Amino acid sequence: MKIRPRQSALTRLYPPPATDYPLEGLYLGQELHPRAGAGKPFVYSNFISSLDGRIAIAREGRSTHQVPAAITNPRDWRLYQELAGQADILITSGRYFRQSEIEEAQDRLPVSGHPDYRDIREWRDRHGLAAQPDIAILSRSLAIPLESLNAYQNRRIIVFTGRQAEADRIARLREHGVEVIAAGVDRTVDGAVLVATLAAMGYVSIYAIAGPDVLHTLLKARVLDRLYLTTTHQLLAGEHFDTLTRGGGFDPALGMQLVSLYLDRHAPSGASQWFSVFEPRSD
To answer: Is the pLDDT of residue 11 over 80?
Structure first.
């Protein structure tokens, strides 16, 4: 859907004073790629959630949880693409490719080739980034359908798993031309080892676009630098759903500080939404 300029105004609520901004370029203007430190990539993630915390729900006729159709909207999707446009590698999961194989994935991995996002692709070119970000897949089981990788043959694909992953599945992926790297002591990926390995490979900006397990992996290792969260002002309820994280509890809780907050009055239909940015507290 083409977004008309007259509909693009957002209101920044924090930091004050309240100021109107256009939607297009909101996140591109943050210039995430140069934020990496010496030997430490800039790691960020992004989610969209309902007001009652649903990022994915069970749907009739689907075998996996899906992003609720009620909360998806092209304005949030625009900013999702802007974040992808600044990454030189995406972190996703084996689950995404299993969903792709059964046509239950939300969409292809960005950056989209749609004409509405041409400016994002041009931004990558001006900043010396490859046409598309590479792909890092986190997987314990290595149950990744090989056919689902074919759409990304023009990108470097790296699978991260644990040292105790099944050898025959590792061999199968490598025979298909996929790099497989052990980054954990058992079958689980250690977030600190993951990011250190990507840094050694020369990656600077890392965008995690997977679900609650991957976010937990990054938070547990204290390697996430920034969290982007779109909160639609809708209540969905329901008993079977995913929220931002899944895994062992954090004790003490991980404090996050608000960096910015924008109010979007134009979407989703019948509601509004916040675009918020958080960073881990440094104290």
So the answer is: yes
- Residue from 186, 187, 183, 194 nearest 219 by CA: 194
Domain-by-domain residue ranges, the chain? 36-248+256-280
Asked if 167 and 144 touch (Cβ cutoff 8 Å), the reply is no
Q: What is the pLDDT of residue 283?
A: 63
* C-beta atoms surrounding 47 within 10 Å: 22
CATH topology of domain 36-248+256-280: Dihydrofolate Reductase, subunit A (3.40.430)
CA distances from 110 to 3, 87, 165, 222 (A): 19, 10, 28, 25
Per residue in 63-90, pLDDT (tens digit) is 677 889 999 999 999 999 999 999 999 9
